[in-house]
Structures are given as structure tokens and as C-alpha cells.
Automatic annotation (TrEMBL):
Cofactor: FAD
Natural source organism: Streptomyces xanthii
UniProt family annotation: Belongs to the acyl-CoA dehydrogenase family.
Residue intervals of the Acyl-CoA oxidase/dehydrogenase middle domain: 114-206
Flavoprotein recorded as keyword: yes
Keywords from the UniProt entry: FAD, Flavoprotein, Oxidoreductase
Pfam family, one: Acyl-CoA_dh_N
Domain Acyl-CoA dehydrogenase/oxidase C-terminal: 220-368
The Acyl-CoA dehydrogenase/oxidase N-terminal domain, residue ranges: 9-109
InterPro entries cross-referenced by the UniProt entry: Acyl-CoA_DH_CS (IPR006089), Acyl-CoA_Oxase/DH_mid-dom (IPR006091), Acyl-CoA_Oxase/DH_mid-dom_sf (IPR046373), AcylCo_DH-like_C (IPR036250), AcylCo_DH/oxidase_C (IPR009075), AcylCoA_DH/ox_N (IPR013786), AcylCoA_DH/ox_N_sf (IPR037069), AcylCoA_DH/oxidase_NM_dom_sf (IPR009100)
Name used for this protein in its record: Acyl-CoA dehydrogenase family protein
One MF term in the entry's GO annotations: flavin adenine dinucleotide binding
Length: 377
């Protein structure tokens, strides 16, 4: 398969996901309580086999799932993505015991996972973590500090937590641990955010962890974090593309039927050209996302650059496309419950989480200049 085309089986699979989402997931999403984990929705994702695909498929399949779900049900898309983000380090770096204990629960939708990286003083600069893992014996530590803006907190059942094990070592002194929610000393509180799913803060008061909880090696946790983000960044772009496509579909239907100035809105050149520009941007972002995912699946060395490009282009594109769609729909698009009102709220956050747009530009520039720096005498 080429990087810029899909096989007929993949196209059919995407259509099947959209149909399943409309039939099984949207009704559950509509019953959700804002700011709470929708456990029936997560369980249904498990029953449909989509959560299992998180750990048995490559980056491109992950993108196809997220884009397909986002076009129909953003709540289901987010629930799936957070399960993957929180549990992928367990799948990729956990011991056999940790994988056997937790992955069946996650893939069945019985246990909800979370990725706990950000802190009050370490958002974009992930290497500046201050949550401390103090030695408490030869193979044990106690975690002390805070995490903030953690999706699914404080309601998740397990957390992938990144803590500082070596002071003054920057990215080289961070270790990843799997921390079940019922560990003594771990508490949390919800944050009132512009989000349909819970986002919260976690407090660690001497939370005990041992070598059995390690994800990867001691002081190698930053590699765990970046490896996870390199996989998920293109799929954040896929989420954005799905939202942009939903906005474009709605705009095509509206402008083709809305009567104005003696014809339909689509008869007005200024409107038709805006819609053409929306379609151009969506397809460009989609191709960039697919290319980045293919690079990841092929083990290409340019994954950090292409993943950053895909997330940056797609999230910026979605913001523009959804905003334009709202403009072309007029006041009706801002009515509570309208698809575009929902997308307008949902589309903003992806430009911040998993590395803000400014961070993606820094990564791209660093990767572009790296060969030149190596060539210097």
C-alpha cells in the first residue's frame, strides 16, 4: 500500500466503523454526564472490538479508527484515544505480569486508563517534571508531587505516571510507573474544563511503587513518553481531520439547500470558493496524517518530524474549517446542541494537548536543522 492511498478493505472498514458508531455509540454518548467517564460507552467500544485494535494494529489503523469515529461521535473517539494513550506504555513497556493484569481489562472496557505526564509547572516542557520518586528500599520508591490537566482523572482505574528519579538530569532522569488508582496516598480532584470528558488534578502523598510497577527502565521514562506521543500525535491529527470532515459535510449540505439571494448559497462564488478551500485543507491534512502514520509503521527515522507536522497541520486546519463552517451556517450553528456548536467547542483543545502547536514547530525546526548541526566541524 502506498503512503497516500487506502486499500478498498480499509475504506470499507472506515465505513463500518462510522455505521457502528451511529448505531451503537451515539445513543450512549447522548446519555453521558458531562465531566464524568462514560463507562457504558467505554464498555461498548470494548464489545465492538475497537479497544483491542488499539494494541494489535499500527499507527495508520489507529488514525483510521480515530478519524472515522470523530466524523460521527467525538465522545467515542476521545474515549478510545484515552484508553490507548493511557495503556500503550503498559502494552509496549510493561512486564508480562502488568500486561496480563491490565490489558484484558482495558481492551474489554472494564478498566479506564489515563496518561499522567503534565504538571502545574511542566506542561509543554515535559522534561521539567518535578513529581519525585524517592527511593524507599532497593526496589521501591514513594511518589510525591502533583499532576495536572490529566484526562480521565480523577476517575481512571490506572495511571501511567512519569516521575523524577534522578534530580538535575532533565529528560534523562525520568521514570515511568503504572499506578493503580487505589494506591494509598493517591488522591485527585476534577477540574472544570471545556471538555465533555473528565480532566483532573492528581496529588501523590508518598504513593508506594516498586520495580514491579516499572514501565521500561529506571531513568528511561522520557523515552516511554515520547514513543507514546510519536504514535499518538498523527492520530490526534486524524481526530482533527474527522471533525473537519464532519464540518465540511454539514457545510456542503447546508449551502446546497439554503435559499438566499435568488438561489442557493452554493451559487454564490464567494461561498463556493470558501467550501473549495475547506475541502482542499481537509484533504491536505488527511494526506499528511496518513503519511506520518505510514512513516511510524515503517520505522522511519523521520517519525518525530512527520508526527509533529501531521498534528500541527491537521489541528490548525480543523480549527479553520470548523470556524468557516460556523460562519457559513450563521446563527443556527451556535445554537446549543447543533453539530457545529459541539465541534466548535471540541476543536480547540487538540492544538494544546500532547504538545501545543508551538512545541510541534520547535520539534520540526529541531529535526530540520539536526543534519546541518551534525555536519559542522
Amino acid at each position: 500500500m502506498g503512503s497516500f492511498s487506502l486499500e478498498p478493505s480499509q475504506v470499507a472498514w472506515c465505513a463500518e466503523i462510522r455505521e457502528l458508531a451511529a448505531r451503537h455509540l451515539v445513543p450512549l454518548a447522548e446519555k453521558a454526564e458531562p465531566g464524568r467517564i462514560n463507562r457504558p460507552l467505554v464498555a461498548e467500544l470494548g464489545r465492538l472490538g475497537l479497544l483491542d485494535r488499539l494494541f494489535t494494529s499500527g499507527a495508520l489503523d489507529l488514525c483510521l479508527m480515530r478519524e472515522s469515529l470523530a466524523r460521527v461521535c467525538t465522545e467515542a473517539e476521545t474515549a478510545l484515544a484515552l484508553q490507548g494513550l493511557g495503556a500503550h506504555p503498559v502494552h509496549a513497556h510493561g512486564s508480562a505480569e502488568l500486561r496480563e493484569r491490565w490489558l484484558p481489562e482495558v481492551t474489554a472496557g472494564r478498566a479506564v486508563a489515563a496518561f499522567a505526564l503534565s504538571e502545574p509547572g511542566a506542561g509543554s516542557d515535559a522534561a521539567a517534571l518535578s513529581l519525585t520518586a524517592e527511593p524507599d528500599g532497593p526496589d521501591s520508591w514513594r511518589l510525591t508531587g502533583e499532576k495536572c490537566w490529566i484526562s480521565n482523572a480523577p476517575e481512571a482505574d490506572l495511571y501511567t505516571v512519569f516521575a523524577r528519579t534522578t534530580q538535575g538530569a532533565g529528560a534523562r532522569g525520568v521514570t515511568a510507573f503504572l499506578v493503580p488508582a487505589d494506591r494509598p496516598g493517591l488522591t485527585g480532584e476534577p477540574l472544570d474544563m471545556l471538555s465533555p470528558h473528565p480532566i483532573g488534578a492528581l496529588a501523590f502523598d508518598g504513593v508506594p511503587v516498586t520495580r514491579a510497577d516499572l514501565l521500561g527502565e529506571v531513568d528511561a521514562g522520557f523515552r516511554v513518553a515520547m514513543g507514546t506521543l510519536n504514535l499518538f500525535r498523527p492520530s490526534v491529527g486524524a481526530f482533527a481531520v474527522g471533525m473537519a470532515q464532519a464540518a465540511l459535510d454539514a457545510t456542503l449540505a447546508h449551502t446546497a439547500s439554503r435559499q438566499a439571494f435568488g438561489g442557493t448559497l452554493s451559487d454564490l462564488q464567494t461561498v463556493a470558493h470558501q467550501v473549495a478551500d475547506m475541502a482542499l485543507r481537509v484533504e491536505s491534512a488527511r494526506l499528511m496524517v496518513y503519511a506520518a502514520a505510514a512513516s511510524y509503521d515503517e520505522g522511519s527515522p523521520d517519525v518525530p518530524r512527520t508526527a509533529a507536522m501531521a498534528k500541527l497541520l491537521a489541528t490548525d486546519t480543523a480549527q479553520h474549517v470548523v470556524d468557516t463552517a460556523v460562519q457559513l451556517h450563521g446563527a443556527r450553528a451556535l445554537r446549543r446542541g447543533h453539530l457545529l456548536e459541539h465541534l466548535y467547542r471540541e476543536v480547540r483543545a487538540p492544538r494544546i494537548y500532547e504538545g501545543a502547536s508551538e512545541v510541534q514547530r520547535a520539534i520540526i525546526a529541531k529535526e530540520l536543522y539536526a543534519p546541518l548541526r551534525k555536519a559542522r566541524p
